[in-house]
Amino acid sequence: MTFVKKTTMKITSFLLSLCLIPLIIVKANGLDTNLSKQMTNHMKTKKVLFVVTSFDQVPNGTKTGIWIEEFASPYFLLTAQGIEVTVTSPKGGKAPIDPKSTKPEFTTESVKQFFSDASAQEKLNNTIALKDIDPNVYDAVFYPGGHGPMWDLPENKISIHIIESFYNAGKPVALVCHAPAALKNVKNQNGEPFVKGKKVAGFTNSEEIAGKSTGEVPFMLEDMLVESGAVCQKGADWQGFAVSDGLLITGQNPASAELVAEKIISALKTVQ
What we know:
Blueprint: H1 2-28, H2 32-43, E1 47-51, H3 68-80, E2 84-89, H4 109-114, H5 118-125, E3 128-129, E4 140-143, H6 148-152, H7 157-168, E5 173-176, E6 199-200, H8 205-210, H9 221-227, E7 231-232, E8 242-245, E9 248-251, H10 257-268
Parallel strand pairs: 1-2, 1-4, 2-3, 4-5, 5-9, 6-7
Antiparallel strand pairs: 8-9
Helix pairs in contact: 3-10
């Protein structure tokens, strides 16, 4: 019995030593203090804040709002990656959808998916008011376009603060189509226009003119960006085009929404 007991103890000690070896190696390399943090960051669910418009009718009487493809494509691409999406708007509650964006000629697969997905529709029907948002909770912010954002977001102080705080905290800021209008009054840390010297894409003058919608906007987006010192980037009219300049991600038109979402996903992989 004594022999068996001693043998058992030796085997147990040997197995315990094997379990301790990885910990000894980690500690020897000075990694033990960061290991828990790295594992926590790796497992953390990323959260993206969608900022949408509350504006539903331009002064000439035309109904407007979100261009739904620019919400739907990024929403489904991000959520498919396990990313949590929260939707906010200046007023909160039901966000308007531009009725033109639901016409058959503009109904993409993501738009069809949106109108068959009760959960996605619930997000837009019950947006959280901007004043109730804590920017610190989120890892990135995204602005879908449509003509609506040009009317209620450029002057919105909370939206301006969100963009500035995200960027200064090292978090991606993404906008597509007309949504870069929200950058109009955003400043950098030197008090200069945020877009000054940055590569930015957005709905072009030629697209606005071709779409016969110049009477539905308070200003021409491309002109505003140029006047603010942006380095405007663009592809062919109506074709997908997106550009990243550090943490700033922008896309030109509805066809660019997926490209912007893909860049958000890539950027989130570097956010700790």
